[in-house]
Design a protein that fits this description.
The complex is a heterodimer of chains A (226) and B (795). Chain A is α+β, with helices and mostly antiparallel strands and 226 residues long. Chain A has 8 helices and 9 strands. By secondary structure, chain B is α/β, with parallel strands linked by helices. Chain B is built from 30 helices and 25 strands. The chains are: A alpha+beta (226), B alpha/beta (795).
């Protein structure tokens, strides 16, 4: 079972600004942005675990020991040409969210919010790195990778999280789901990556349609891309 | 001489009937004649060197097939199967593949266990009679380091180290070919190269980089192009003829060992042989000879030290001597201060970080190992391992995924005996400190002599030119009037007689004197002129930063003064924004400070306003409340963003606390009591916390129950506090129904409070069906609704 601890050597400040709702803001104290990024880097501990399974695209089923049938929503369309899937879980650990809580307790709301956004950026960076490692490994066998697709997007209900965590062996990196299917630590991601025979030929418009923001129903989200 | 390797083994075994999912290496025992036949086919196609069928014959990989106890048996049989195919001129390379796991800190495999696993396999191959060891297809430099160390310990045979690079010319864990070559050559690799992952076209630039970097011969074994998956079969598209054309290019680029990896066959090897057999080695690029430039590496980066390279700053701040907080942090195992120092020094311009874990009473080896592991995950710069403890040194060198600098090796016998072999073993460079058993030499000539002794001893254990950084040794100017002059003279003698890069701990010179920054910076400029290449200093010192920037320009390391100009050229002044002009009225100034979130400024302004006789009520209403109203309106119209609202709220809080501090009797009337909670089952509280902060700052009494709160608890608290408003938050679809449950419970209990609901997944429609009184789309909205509710109540 593959395990990888991605190094988080840089927090993209523009992404952090987007997650905190500052994407369109040109004037904001730089030292606060820098502090949040630095602290996120200091306390984030990237960890990823995954497992590769055969995939039956006709029945939209992940062929794990206990097969998991995917709903007839965007996820199964996204995987229509997949021969295999990688089920992955990624986290940056619990320390960042403890620090965010401390900031709010100490009435430093701004840093709390910015650090939370920096944590979201960090876990995405960790996931990107793990996906890149997977991509290079499966490329050697001739597979191409589709972009990762997470529960909660495109009407894929988050109640699937416990099964996804199990398929990704996420207990190895201490990610669990609450009874209401939220991930702990909170700065964690699960996703499925389709492996196809040919590199996906995807148009720009299709890419936008399948993007996370487009597949997310939170139209008022601070971080939503136009 | 060009040596031809063989091609792929796995696909040949499958073609010979190896069932899918079967252990390929088990055929060494069960069907050795099939393995021998494959070897023969490669030899008859022109291979000079054949690789044993042992790519996955390590304990970890064999565990998949429950064959972990047969490592020696399988590897010995593999060598016998290979030997059976060989003529007198064919050599056998013992193939060592990756374990399939990543080493700590990138993965969960310890370095020591990886070493043991490789040692076991390489010992078996060595004893069975291979001619060389080939470590191949490695993506983690630490795994390669563990395997190379094991190979050097288990065998005297030559070791070939081949990494796998991606299309970006880095391994997937970030190591580039130059960095890999420097790291591995220093550790004693005999041949360095690349294989797998890429086709020959993509490996050509990698070979070119390796040739320019290392004095080792280069090997390359490309795949037969980039694979495709056709009918669920991995197909490599490049035919033998094309492979031959590329082989010639690879050899002309400087590869001395060439073969094939995935997708290649005896026909490919035959084509390679034909393409390169007539090439004269005199046409090949000349192998780089070791020079006196010293290179240090991290996992992902190389820094060169020497007269022809820019000054490299060694940051000295990760040193607990005299620093209680840092020492306590290291002793407690937290390392947050250590990490902060690392990031801050690099941002201040450090190119190399000196790591010292010298806290009395702790296990320094353990602390050094942990520090190196943690910091190598955080930063890209090479490290200098600064210790007098051989155990701590070895722990650090082992954990370090690159070529470190050992700080330091003196001419004292115990230091030479303990440190030089470690430098050789782990491929580290050494900082030569001219201190002898007789003590600190006073004159430059004496220092040169002691340093020459250290270098002599280092050569005797196998270190080479390019492994040294010479310390000129700085004494304290306050105690010794010649301290500066002798250090400068030492630098000049080093350059004149030895030519290796130089260093020194600059700040020693000013110890005990006032304005140390002035002395340090002045001395730095003088030393750079005298030949200093890598000063050890405090990179935060602004005067030192100016000196280094100016010196880089003056010493020719900053062509046309580009970096200097970018740093110091006056930038065009931004146009003064009309709304940031300072109002004359202090109340207006407070108001503006809150709008623009100037937390520190507002405290002084409020104190001034009170001193000038303004009443606390006037300040509260005309400045604080008015400012927050303006911010709320700006947020609503999209002119201001949530972090700015929060910054204003913090500023308002600071203003309010200042009023309370100056006038303890100042009281404000609560606008109302609000109970806030994230509903049962929901653990997200960021949004709820923001709402709480803004409500409090707007004069509400907030009772924040926290997250994952049951309806019963909310009802109980609402009644107990006679709440005016209850704010409920849910983030996920799975917890949204708890909003309904809570509102139902509140109504059933006869609670009269108004409910406001919000959270990522909630909508006005959902709020309506849940019988909530209001829906708030965001935190500012929640405050406005709460104010409206209380306004309605009081009228």
């Amino acid at each position: 079972m593959p395990l990888y601890n991605p190094a988080i050597k840089n927090i993209n400040i523009e992404e952090m600004k987007r997650y905190s709702g500052l994407a369109k803001c040109s004037e904001f104290p730089q030292h606060l942005l820098d502090q949040a990024c630095t602290e996120a880097q200091l306390v984030s501990q990237g960890k990823a675990s995954w497992q590769i399974y055969d995939y039956n695209a006709h029945t939209a089923t992940i062929m794990s020991p206990e097969p998991l049938r995917l709903p007839p929503t965007v996820i199964s369309k996204h995987l229509a040409n997949a021969l295999k899937v990688v089920v992955i879980a990624v986290t940056i650990g619990p320390k960042l969210e403890e620090l965010v809580s401390n900031y709010f307790t100490n009435n430093e709301y701004t840093l709390g919010l910015l650090l939370d956004a920096a944590g979201t950026t960090a876990v995405e960076i960790a996931a990107d790195q793990a996906c890149e490692l997977i991509k290079q490994e499966v490329n050697k066998q001739g597979y191409s990778t589709l972009f990762r697709f997470s529960p909660g997007y495109g009407q894929w209900d988050i109640t699937v999280q416990p099964q996804i965590l199990s398929l990704a062996n996420a207990d190895e990196i201490n990610i669990t789901a609450t009874p209401s299917c939220m991930l702990l630590p909170r700065k964690s991601i699960t996703a499925v990556i389709g492996l196809t025979a040919n590199a996906p030929t995807i148009t720009h418009d299709e890419k936008i349609k399948l993007s996370k923001c487009h597949q997310c129903q939170q139209v008022n989200c601070l971080a939503r891309k136009e | 001489m060009i040596y031809i390797f063989d091609g792929a083994m796995g696909t040949m075994l499958q073609n010979a009937g190896l069932p899918p999912g079967y252990c390929p290496e088990l055929w060494n025992i069960q069907q050795p004649e099939s393995v021998t036949t494959i070897h023969k086919s490669y030899i008859s196609s022109g291979a000079d060197i054949i690789e044993t069928n042992t790519f996955g014959a390590n304990r970890i990989k064999l565990t998949h097939y429950k064959l972990q106890d047969k490592v020696a048996l399988i590897n010995t049989a593999a060598v016998q199967a290979a030997r059976a195919a060989c003529g007198p001129n064919t050599k056998i390379a013992g193939s060592i593949g990756p374990t399939g796991k990543l080493i700590v800190p990138l993965g969960d495999l310890t370095f020591d266990y990886a070493y043991e696993v490789f040692f076991e396999q390489i010992s078996a191959l060595d004893q069975a009679g291979v001619d060389m060891i080939l470590i191949e297809t490695i993506i983690d430099i630490q795994e390669m380091r563990a395997a190379l160390l094991a190979a050097k310990a288990a065998s005297n045979k030559p070791v070939i180290c081949q990494m796998s690079f991606g299309a970006d010319e880095r391994t997937v864990t970030g190591t580039d070919p130059i960095t890999a070559a420097i790291t591995l050559e220093a550790m004693g690799a005999d041949v360095i190269g690349a294989n797998c992952s890429l086709g020959p076209a993509q490996l050509l630039p990698i070979v070119q980089k390796l040739v320019k970097t290392t004095s080792c011969p280069i090997s390359v074994q490309a795949n037969a192009g980039m694979p495709s998956l056709i009918n669920k079969q991995t197909i490599f598209p490049m035919g033998p003829d094309e492979m031959g054309i590329w082989a010639k290019k690879l050899v002309l680029a400087g590869a001395h060992y060439i073969g094939g990896c995935c997708g290649t066959t005896p026909e490919h090897i035959k084509s390679i042989r034909q393409a390169v057999k007539h090439l004269s080695t005199s046409n090949l690029p000349i192998i780089q000879q070791a020079n006196k430039t010293t290179a240090l590496t991290s996992r992902t980066k190389t820094i060169y030290l020497g007269a022809n390279h820019p000054t490299a700053i060694i940051g000295e701040r990760i040193n607990p001597t005299g620093r209680k907080q840092l020492a306590a942090d290291i002793a407690s195992g937290q390392f947050i201060s250590v990490k902060k120092e690392a990031l801050s020094q690099i941002r201040a311009g450090a190119h190399i970080l000196d790591i010292n874990m010298g806290v009395p009473g702790i296990d320094q080896a353990q602390a050094m190992e942990y520090a190196i592991q943690e910091l190598s995950m955080l930063v890209d710069t090479p490290f200098a391992i600064d210790t007098t403890d051989p155990k701590a040194l070895e722990a650090g060198l082992k954990a370090y995924p690159g070529r470190a600098l050992i700080n330091s090796v003196s001419a004292e016998p115990e230091r030479l005996e303990a440190f030089l072999p470690l430098a050789k073993k782990y491929g580290a460079a050494i900082l030569c400190l001219p201190i002898s058993p007789e003590g600190v030499p006073k004159t430059a000539q004496e220092r040169l002599h002691v340093t020459q002794q250290i270098i002599h001893e280092a050569f005797a254990v196998g270190l080479k030119p390019g492994d040294f950084v010479l310390d000129a040794l700085i004494l304290t100017a306050a105690a010794d009037a010649t301290a500066g002059i002798e250090a400068l003279a030492t630098l000049k003698l080093y350059r004149q007689h030895l030519g290796y890069p130089t260093t020194m701990g600059l700040s020693n010179i000013s110890f005990g004197l006032p304005r140390r920054d002035a002395i340090n910076a002045t001395f730095c400029a003088m030393a750079l002129d005298a030949g200093l290449d890598a000063p050890i200093l405090n990179p935060y010192d602004p005067l030192m930063q100016h000196t280094l920037a100016a010196s880089a320009l003056l010493l020719g390391h900053d062509p046309r003064g580009r970096s200097y100009s970018i740093r110091y050229a006056p930038t065009s002044q931004p146009e003064q924004r009309t709304d940031t002009t300072t109002p004359k009225n202090v109340i207006a100034q407070i108001r503006q400070a809150i709008v623009s979130g100037e937390k520190e400024a507002v405290v002084l302004l409020v104190e001034q306003a009170l001193k000038e006789g303004n009443s606390s009520i006037a300040i509260s209403e005309q400045a604080l409340t008015s400012a927050m109203n303006e911010v709320g309106i700006a947020f609503g119209s999209g002119q201001c963003f949530l972090p700015q609202v929060l910054l204003s709220a913090e500023t308002m809080r600071a203003a309010f606390l200042t009023i309370k501090k100056v006038l303890p009797s100042h009281t404000t009337t609560s606008l109302g009591t609000v109970i806030l909670a994230t509903v049962k089952g929901d653990i997200h509280d960021l949004g709820k916390n923001i709402v709480a902060a803004l409500l409090e700052n707007n004069g509400f009494t907030v009772i924040d129950l926290g997250k994952d709160i049951s309806p019963e608890k909310i009802v109980q608290e609402a009644l107990a506090h006679n709440a005016d408003i209850i704010g409920l938050c849910a983030l996920m679809t799975t917890t949204m129904p708890q909003i309904d449950n809570t509102i139902t419970a509140l109504k059933a209990a006869g609670c009269q409070a108004q409910t406001i609901v919000g959270g990522a997944v909630l909508t006005q429609e959902y709020a309506n069906q849940a019988n909530a009184n209001s829906y708030a789309a965001n935190a500012v909205d929640a405050v406005n609704i709460a104010k409206k509710i209380m306004g309605t109540k009081t009228h």
